[in-house]
Amino acid sequence: MDGHQSTRPIVGVPAVPTRRCMQRSQPWPWAALVSVATAVVLVGCAPAPLTPVDRGAHLQAPTALTPLQQLRRMAPAPGLQLPDPLRAARQALRDEMVDEQGIASWYGPGLHGRRTASGERFNTHDFTAAHPHYAFGTRLCVLSRDGKAVEVRVNDRGPYAKNRIIDLSRAAAEALDMVDSGVRRVQLWKLDAEETCDDRLDVLAAAAEAG
Fold first, then answer.
1. What interhelical angle do 85-97 and 197-210 show, nearest 10?
2. C-alpha distances in angstroms, 113 versus 52, 63, 160?
């Protein structure tokens, strides 16, 4: 052995021809490098992803609903009374029949026999009233919420208390059963020359039955 590797074939193993390959310098893949660099530049210049917009419930598309679910959504809430145009019109008609509505009071203690604004003597036992603007001698029908009514004649000015629409004599207050309470919520109408309070109440009753 002279220190060199033997090239003799080993018995039983086929000889593999060997060749001495000289390592040659390979050219750089410049096209690939240019492509990679271009991709890096494009990625760096790309706009940043937008922040997701918070979509409110009113902006979201409705989910698919079954026909039954759609009908349930369209149905009114339990206990909700839908407006009746005809009933509203009748109520407006009844309101037009009312000249005024508000709080009535009564007056008279210590004033019996004194002169009123019309010049006649105040009589607490007469069915009279004090009103801010109706002409003296005007007849009014006064109706309380509980259905009691009385016809009075205006012969005085008043009332002077805030938020009152009429001052009644004691006799008229007794007819409305408001002596003890002192005040009562009422509606009143100006009566025509031949009209009575009962006539006006009949008209109101007919309007109520029609409604």
1. 170
2. 87, 81, 20
pTM for the whole structure:
0.55
Residue 79 Cα distances to 75, 76, 84, 91, angstroms = 11, 8, 15, 22
Amino acid at 112: H
Query: How far is Cα 150 from Cα 173, in angstroms, rounded to an integer?
Result: 9
Residue 144 DSSP SS3: strand
Return the ∠ at Cα 92 (arms to 87 and 96), rounded to 5°. 150
Q: Is 129 within 8 Å of 152 (Cβ atoms)?
A: yes
- Helix, strand, coil tally for the chain in percent (to 5): 25, 20, 55
Each of the 211 residues of the chain gets a pLDDT tens digit; together they read 444 455 555 555 455 554 444 455 555 555 555 565 665 555 555 555 555 555 544 445 555 677 666 666 666 566 555 555 545 544 554 555 678 999 999 998 889 999 999 999 999 999 999 999 999 999 999 999 888 999 999 999 999 888 999 999 999 999 999 999 999 999 999 998 888 988 888 877 777 676 5
Measured from the Cβ of residue 206, the count of other Cβ atoms closer than 10 Å reads 10
Exposed, middle or buried, 207 (CB in 10 Å: 0-12/13-18/19+)? middle
Phi, psi of 168 (to 5 degrees): -105, 155
